[in-house]
Amino acid sequence: MSQQFRFGFGDDEDVEEDHLSRDDGCLEVTHSGAEQGSPAGAAPCLHSLEDLLDTIPSKFEYNTITIPSPDYGNIHIARRELFDIRAQLMAEDNTLDNSSTAGLSTDDIKPHIYEGGFKTWECSIDLANHLANQSDYLLQIQSNPSTIIELGAGTALPTLFLYRILISKYEAQNPPHTTIVLADYNLSVLKLAIIPNLVLNYHNADPDLPEPGDIEFLDDPRAAFQDFLREINTEIRALSGSWGPDFATIALPESSEAPKDVLILASETIYSPASTRAFTETLLDLIRRSEQAGGKARALVAAKKVYFGVGGGVDEFLDVLLQLGGEGKVVWSTEGSGSGVERCILEVTNRIGNVDNR
Question: Is 256's pLDDT higher than 80?
Fold first, then answer.
């Protein structure tokens, strides 16, 4: 039997709404009494954007979160409401699999079944805010060919921020090619959260984003969205399944093209000791694949110092990272802020070249 986790952030509320009203910052986990152990994870799989767009409804309920940027002002990011996702899940209950129906429950996580991707976790907000202050990098992705990979993306808030920056300059002539790779364990999260969020932010590209509410597409948004991606020279790739060597090969395949700068993002991905090693191996594999191709790789991991009730956290991640030939440096932290459990962002680098300690 798998273990079920429910983090202490309320029931149907997105995490940052609760985060703004709390001052303890505590991520607590309650156990369902299930036995230790869980079935093997799903094999990684690349999905076509066309197939994922097939489930786009004609109307969304959405809310917004604002990420302030010293260079671009307030960036308003639209995200599909959790209750709207659940409404679509219930409407399509004749076609739901276990991972989808798990998203309807009050459990935040069911390991190897549903990994919490329908909610926005607070460290993803930290990561988006951190990116907003990286002036040099924001200019770089607008000027040079690049690949952005988000592991365990969920609602993909950090990538959505970068996506809005790219959109803000879409009128540029001959924009550099950008590949955005969005990965989540659950295919249902890709279909019902990540891809809809990309479409929402394309249709709400105006900086003065309307107040949260609903949007109804009078015309089919799918063809227009794909046309727009071609205009801004951006490719969307979506992966589901578990981390591992096959995952890295699919996410960052070998290419005969000129090497690209690669940014790897992850938030709230090291809460479980059972998956920390696989995640770390995948992260380093992606960094090394980029470096071997002559590119530059940068990896940022946002996490809590410790995940109570689960056992994972930053210290264990850093230990595994060191064993596998990498290292991590804290580039942002809430330490000393009095905000409760410490949260931080680590920059991860490859320390000793291409090694294999598996």
Answer: no
